[in-house]
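Hi, here's the filled form for the chain we discussed.

Project: internal
Contact: R.S.
Residues: 541
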Amino acid sequence: MAKEKFTLERAKSPEEVGVSSKEVVEFLRDMKENKLEFHSFMVVKNDKVACELYRAPFNKDVPHSAYSISKTVTAIAAGFAIEEGLFTLDTRIVDVFPEYIPEKVDGRIFKVTVRNLLTMTAGVSPNLFLDKSKTDWLEEYFKSPFYGEPGTFRYVNENIFVLSAMICKLAKMTLREYLTPRLFAPLNIDFPEWETNQDGIEAGGWGLSLKLEDLAKIMYCLSNNGKVEKKQIIPENWVLEMTDAHADTSICKNIDTDKGYGYCVWRNGGNNSFRANGMFSQFGIVFPEENAVLVCFGAIASEQEARDCIWRHFPKAFIEPDKKAKKPVYEDFYKIADEFKIDNPQVSIRSLQEAKLNNKTIELKRKVLLNLIGFPVSVIPFTVTFLNGKKAGNIDNINFTFKENECLMSWCEGAEKNTVTCGMDGHLRYGDITLGGVKYKVCCYAEWDESDILKVNIRPLETASKRKLKFTFVGTEKVIMKPLSTPKVKDMAVSLVGAASEVIENDLVEAIIILPGSLFYTTDISVTLWIINKKSLRKLF
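And the returned structure, exactly as it came back:
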């Protein structure tokens, strides 16, 4: 008789497995009062799902970008590779990729090992905002400058891409193919989407999309020292090693980032727990002492604010199991959950502009500077695509068709054409689009802000971001489009550039301009210009 595929069993109530439903409700109220955009969360305690919530329009069946949680999964792959003898922690990257050693070489590149990649101590400092659709990722890494000697901590996404590339080269298959029989299949995880470079090598450090329960399965496996249903999935010694602190992160000066870094795993402050961490507050948190796991997806720029909300209620919510507990409090959880819709469109006023716009194609001017540096204005926000090897084109033209309760918006981005239906009756409309060769599920609505401003909201459900297009109609012929996104690019920069966070958080940055490589005679490295508001700078100091 064939064994059933692995699933996470649901508890009858949180109390059955030792979770206070009262505290879970308080957690919900806390995130609501503080306007924290958690998209979904799940708590696993004593081998069962204690509670879970998916805030509309998000649901359990649509994968969500995990951002840097991708690193933790790649680190698991590295454990398999070491176990199977593909390389060791002390293997040098130059020994795997001798063809990428540049003529003008910084000697420190010969010291960089797998251990350095896993612990973010390689010393290499690639250009964060370099357009990856136009570069050879390995070549750029090898010719990048060093911020310090190997052994010094700095969080660098590209370190884990190099690790991914090493596994792909030595295993002679893609990272997903490598992980499928070892991790994904045993945990009953469908073959996930993962951003790749032009050569089909997974990004490693970013770009993985997972369903919430898939993330819960992975973290649950780590919480059990690599075992699931008494079967060893991940080597136990590797789990123990990767979740221990190896890199000194005291430079981070934050309670949840200065307690040390394992192999793509953070040690948390205030409790004996560790986490996989992704930008905009994607978390996989393991509480070893409580035999518990908490996973969540979201769009919260301040990750510390999101974590603080979690710490106010967990591990406090973990109690002694009570199998006889009744459900009255837990039912309140579902009542509150029903109020937790993220997008809440209103019935739109209607405008006389609709008659003028109906079936009329609006030609849009390209943003010259943005296109010069390689970041066109797309319906998919920059906060989603900035590290992508494949990018969409510009929004070249838009056509609107207005109906009684909705409008259709069609547009072209290069060779790709898409149409979405936008609700105008207080309800979302769902659809599918393809941009940059990537398919997205989207929900959309539109509303008139007075009679001459149309706001279109498009949310790709697999991402943390939402695109807002604001059309201002001037006279009978002129239309001005302003693209906005939430979270903002500024929020992304704050999350990624810790050293510059004070400058960005205080709205001192007017613009970030990425110049192409080989522009200057003295270096072929891409240069980034930060335009600072001088008047605001005086106010800060």
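Let me know if anything looks off before we file it.
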